[in-house]
Amino acid sequence: MVSKTKTSTNGAETIETALHSGAEAMKDGFEKAAKNYDQFMNFSKDTAEAMIKAANAAGKGIETINSEMFAYARKSLEESITATKAIMGSKSVDEAVQLQSDFSKSVFETYVDELAKFGDLTLATAKDAAMPLQARVSAFVDLVRTAPN
Question: Can you give the pTM of this predicted structure?
């Protein structure tokens, strides 16, 4: 009988220890989950803000490109009208051909310059829009590296 009592007491202690260990493990797991949830929520919030910044940068860049295109189109039209008037008012065919040649050369040079400017504006817009997103990718990599195993 003594051995039964001892075994029963020993078993009760083992169950009590197991329940206590299980409760501690559950508490630790819940605390880790809560901490990870907070990190995830902060990361998501920062990512949403980065996406808004990227969209704003892209919008501003597109607005700049559009205004530059409009200014180029307006200037091109005005120069075309001026050249047409000059060519129509020329006193000889040679003068008209020379005016047309000069105008064509000017149009081509302006077109090449404007094309380079639009390329630079597009590249700058892409860089500005990508910068906040690149920062979030770096933050994600850091988060993964520091995440507990």
Answer: 0.67
